[in-house]
Amino acid sequence: MRKQFDILVLDDESVIINAVDKICSAEGLKVDTSTDAGDALLKVEKNSYRLIISDIMMPDIDGFQFLDALSKMKIKTPIIITTGFSTVENAVKSLYNGAIDFIPKPFSADELISSVSRGLKYFDIQKKLCESKNSVNDASIIYVPCPAKYFRLGYASWAAPDNSGSVLIGVTDLFLRTIDSISEIKLSKVDDEIIQGNSCAQVKSKDYLIHTVLSPVSGRILEKNTQLLNNASIVEKDPYFNGWFYRIIPSDNEFELTQLIPCSSDRL
After folding, report:
1. 124: helix, coil or strand?
2. At 169, is the pLDDT very low, low, confident or very high (cuts 50, 70, 90)?
3. What distance in Å separates the CA atoms of residue 226 and residue 224, rounded to the nearest whole number?
4. Which range marks the domain in which residue 95 is found?
5. Same structural domain for residues 47 and 100?
């Protein structure tokens, strides 16, 4: 009989495993752990998990190889990647290859809880989506995907190039469905430089969690959507058009768009 867990934590550092276990267990979550990727793959075959938290830098099998192995096994469990070797390349590569979030070490308890909360809700949404596809009577819309001409970083943020050479940035409807209702949005300043894979904004939800938005592209902020500062419900009602966060002048649009997932592929 398959054992049921909320989270599998994979890291070759016992101090990290113990910290994540302690924090998540205090939230009432059932945690399983592993210090070896090969062992973790065996556990995934035998047990059921709602979320996996995995380090990148590990002996024998690294985090990217672990992601690839899960994909080949057709394991749909959402994965959060962590690493002490935090680089833009690692963040973007992780999200491009299927991770749902990227947390650089050292991380705080609040940062971990925020990411885990979204990850567990992401699992529930995907489960509901799968059930609706298998039901001829269920015509409900679970979430609205990005417009086909957009590009996304992971599941959370999107970029939309326009004919003027600038790029609009925002968050996806799926990201919004993984958090409680928004109470506040914190945006960067006009003329600030933002970097692909780094934090560009923060969203505070009504359950008091603060959610980091990773920028899908790099560039200088030309304009920010100040309407959101006084009326966060705009982004909840219309995340792809009126609810945009920034208009930027991209630094390297031609290259960075290749590091994103075309939203047209979500319709295949």
Report:
1. helix
2. very high
3. 6
4. 4-133
5. yes
Q: Given its phi and psi angles, is residue 191 left (phi above 0), alpha (psi -120 to 50 degrees) or beta?
A: left
Strand 157-161 with 167-171, pairing? antiparallel
Cβ neighbors of 32 (< 8 A, separation 6 or more) are 3, 5, 7, 8, 9, 43, 47, 49
Average confidence (pLDDT) over 6-14: 96
Q: What is the domain-level CATH number for residue 116? A: 3.40.50.2300
Which of 48-57, 86-95, 97-106, 169-178 has the lowest average pLDDT? 86-95
* Long-range residue pairs from 14-18, CB within 8 A, at least 24 positions apart, any chain: 16/55, 16/82, 16/105
* 265, 87, 158, 138: CA torsion to nearest 10: 60
- Ranges 121-135, 212-226, 249-263: which has the least confidence: 121-135
For the segment 8-30, the average pLDDT, to the nearest whole number, is 96
- How many other β-carbons are positioned within 10 Å of the β-carbon of residue 181? 11
Has this prediction a pTM greater than 0.85? Answer: yes
Cα 160–165–167 angle (5° rounding)?
A: 30
Report d(CA 119, CA 48) in Å as an integer. Answer: 15
- My answer on whether 237 and 126 are in the same domain is no
Question: What's the CATH code of the domain at 223?
Answer: 2.40.50.100
Residue 86 — pLDDT band, cuts 50, 70, 90? low
For the record, the structure tokens of 263 come out as: 């939203």
The predicted pLDDT at position 268 comes to 59
> What are the E-state strand segments in 11-138?
31-34, 48-55, 79-83, 101-104
Three-state secondary structure call for residue 43: helix
